[in-house]
Amino acid sequence: AGSLPLAGLAAGRAAAAAPPVSESAVSEEDPESPWKDLADLIDTGDSEGVAGFIDELDASDVARAIERLGREHREKVLAVLEPSAGAELLEQLVDAQGGELLEAAEPQVAAAVLQELDVADQADLIATLEPEDAKSILAEMPAEAAREAEFVGNYAPDTAGRMMDTEFLAFPQDSDAGRVVSDLRRRADEVEDDAVQYIYVVDREGRLTGVLRLRDLLLSPSWRVLETFMIRMPLALHVDQALDDILDVFDGHAFLAVPVVDGEGVLRGVVHRGDAQEALSERSEREHRRSQGLIHEELRSMRLLDRSRSRLAWLSVNILLNILAASIIASHQDTLSAVIALAVFLPIISDMSGCSGNQAVAVSMRELALGITKPTDILYVWRKEVVVGVLNGSVLGAIVAVVAWLWKGNPWLGLVVGAALALNTVIAVSVGGTVPLILKRFGRDPALASGPILTTVTDMCGFFLVLSMASTLMRHLA
Amino acid sequence: AGSLPLAGLAAGRAAAAAPPVSESAVSEEDPESPWKDLADLIDTGDSEGVAGFIDELDASDVARAIERLGREHREKVLAVLEPSAGAELLEQLVDAQGGELLEAAEPQVAAAVLQELDVADQADLIATLEPEDAKSILAEMPAEAAREAEFVGNYAPDTAGRMMDTEFLAFPQDSDAGRVVSDLRRRADEVEDDAVQYIYVVDREGRLTGVLRLRDLLLSPSWRVLETFMIRMPLALHVDQALDDILDVFDGHAFLAVPVVDGEGVLRGVVHRGDAQEALSERSEREHRRSQGLIHEELRSMRLLDRSRSRLAWLSVNILLNILAASIIASHQDTLSAVIALAVFLPIISDMSGCSGNQAVAVSMRELALGITKPTDILYVWRKEVVVGVLNGSVLGAIVAVVAWLWKGNPWLGLVVGAALALNTVIAVSVGGTVPLILKRFGRDPALASGPILTTVTDMCGFFLVLSMASTLMRHLA
User: Minimal CA–CA distance to B95: which of B71, B120, B119, B128?
Assistant: First the structure.
């Protein structure tokens, strides 16, 4: 299947202006509610119709159509399609959405579709399922295939073992070029397009000993033994190596794919450059999501209770931290009732400090991701943040001070709220810049915890600064 | 250069446990302050020493060493290195950091290094420079090269024209397989490894008419004319096509690279799968950064005033919005001084509503990025958010209500703050879910503006709800 993938296929809105490019019928339309047509096709049980409908749409329109299907139709999507067409559909969707379709389908149907995917994709999709659903789907797969999927699923996320493609071309080192070419010719149709960038060479135990590039093979006489023109001791990844190592390899070299070996040096698979980039992009998406208080990936098509519970998990911790911070205000009620104007400025100081601190968090997260900052660089980061905090705190403090002074005609009120905001900005950027490093150093997830820690600390400090300074200067304020 | 990139190279910490893999001397160390050694090497002007030092480190350690160099050393890095080694260094760094090195160097040095990069990288780096710096560097490049870099730089960011590789292999359609193979053999050393996945076929005007896969070429007799076995009408991108279209193409097909044509159908370049993935990952990074209030990419090695100014640009808008929201409190001072306990709950309601709303913003941003949600789906998104808001608002409102009741022994206080938080949670998720869609619909950047709009609206509504409900129920509260 798919031996001539370039031929005559049209890609959505691709190249409308370019003469040599074929165009598809849907290229210019922006389908308004594609899920209605899709639901109709599902109702008629028209397998080819559904497959054709999905083929014609852009990947994002397919995702949108699936998202908007009602539960009764969503249950039937995979059942209506041929397993191979179902697999192609899942490849277009993000894992969370693909997992939803698998959960909605009958286990036999889900198992048949899964088997059409490569094992890395199987493992990723299975990881999104509820454990019971995963179990009943795996039970419907042939024992061997289920075992392999579970085996790959056991590699930690974002390791070479988890993201490798287990389809690759490998030949014994004592073969000759002619045998490789005739073997390639024989298997031309079954070999995936992206599996033949490099041809690997192994010894009798399956250990990786060399690599051939296709063009070197092209230029070698057929009697040459692979050993004599292969590139020896090729760079390889270990199955347990993590994403950052993998990205370093692709950053440092122009390779399209890197072989993956196990502890014995046996060739197990291949990581493609695109897979590593995709894993990186998913990791940053995950961090972003977590920094906004979404512990799990949420799509609005998911079950209401799951969506609510996942959001509440983070909110309920946050509200306790908020109540803790507000207890500072509660302990200064006398000051507050004497100078009620202060109550107007408390939320401003809380919010602005949070903003300044979040900017520092974002810079630290970015620098950690790039490796520019390490968890031990706390002092350096702190020094770099303090100077920005002093500058920005002065500007913001001055703005608030002037507003307070003009509003109440009392320069002392301006002094209190302005100085408190200026000082608290310095605290906020110090905390925001360093907390992600500290969390990372202790093996915690900085994306998830930095925000709540930051706002709790800056709220408490901010409230305390305003109210204690006000109580000291009370005779000028009241 | 680089015709045998796989041979004998070691990749940082790669594959420590795998026998067939070569190891480098630095593989196990975690260099504590590499920038000191680097600074020493720069001081001695030891070109090979600096290049070797950079080669030995992981890409992230190199980035860290460069970040921590003082200004006087940073100015000299590129001058000390051979231009080709300087270019390899820039390829390892993110554009913002590479741009810093170019700005710090003399224009002649920067120009010599830039010329070693491919034109897409040149355009990306030049885009990060101050206009005057870019001008003086371009002036030092040969007129032809400068024109090409400017030409590519003129394509909008994230279009096929901007990210395409302008090095590719193309042959006239009336050539035969033998000529292609002998030509490949002759040029084997100059052709980049990743340029030879597909060989393109063009007519006399340079228009793309077909594509050859290397393995089809391998299996064809030398007398066959390309036209007779090429894949006709290959899928192609137009130079102006945007990232989402490009990703759709790679999502829908297993291609490693897609050709790019201009309005006349002339082949202009090739977009690789990895480049598209990288552009996606940079776009989500940019959106994340903007959602946290960083308009420009900041690294802590940048100039203090630039860092401060960029952060203040967003903070100063925010403080005005904060003052606007706080004016609601100012207009209810009487209520507040009668029931000073309310002042304790105002920051809680403001912060918690902001959190709930930000979760909805994050889901919408994710669904917009995936194409699952379109800017016109406002009603659908709103319906899906309201139900979550009612559930979560009830839980959070109940928590706050109980706390308030227990604290002051007054159930009416609990009712006011609890009901206000519950209602405001519904408002917050409604605003948070829909505002990104509305901003996108009107061509604004949802990543930048959603947060400030959300918090301003939810603060105003939250403060108003608490204080107006309190003034209505004043006789039970005071």
Answer: B128
